[in-house]
């Protein structure tokens, strides 16, 4: 059936809008890849290992690059390298980029590190660096470590995350609950949240064959060696 003139114009406009949106999205993907390259160079200079993680790892294997609809990058770094990584970034990260971490600013609400291009919020455009700890050999200690870390993440979220993000896409009852919970969490001292993380980390054991990440995912150390960038 032949399209009417109005429908043909509408389809053309929709196609152009989608094409423009996609081209803008590709620009964001390139920005994040440039950020990853800057981070990569810092790690190479300082002999710090990092590993592709989560969706970034999936994209590298399945799509031979980035997942087409994903523009952030997820990495793992061993927790024992935190201080060396911070020093290396302070010394060698190009001035076009910046990073945020709770190990330098208690205002940062995530326990992982974020690297971002200047001019963009680290909440929007970023390379995320998640930490890997040696997984406890005892199932009881492993369970306790997961519980403590989950608690510190949830409490940290409610303590430090702006209310507009907590209310996003919520109905009125949920928004009221979020505001109430946010108010209650304002009375929890930040040192208590950090203390939960320290307790979790204190249970790590470096001489076991597994790593554990902040989501409780167990990773075989020998397997990670194959995946190094």
The CATH architecture classification of the largest domain is 2-Layer Sandwich
What name does CATH use for the topology of the largest domain? Answer: Beta Polymerase, domain 2
Low-confidence stretches: none
Seen as an oligomer or otherwise, the chain set is single chain
Number of structural units classed as domains: 2
Helix content: 40-55%
Strand content is 5-15%
Based on CA inertia axes, which overall geometry fits?
globular
Order of helices and strands: HEHEHEEEHHHHEEH
From the N-terminal CA to the C-terminal CA, the straight-line distance is 53 Å
Mean pLDDT: 86
> What is the count of β-strands?
7
User: What structural category characterises the helix and strand content?
Assistant: alpha+beta
Enumerate how many helices there are, as a single number: 8
Identify the CATH class of the largest domain.
Alpha Beta
Q: How can the largest sheet be summarized? A: 7 strands, mixed
The value of Rg in angstroms is 21 Å
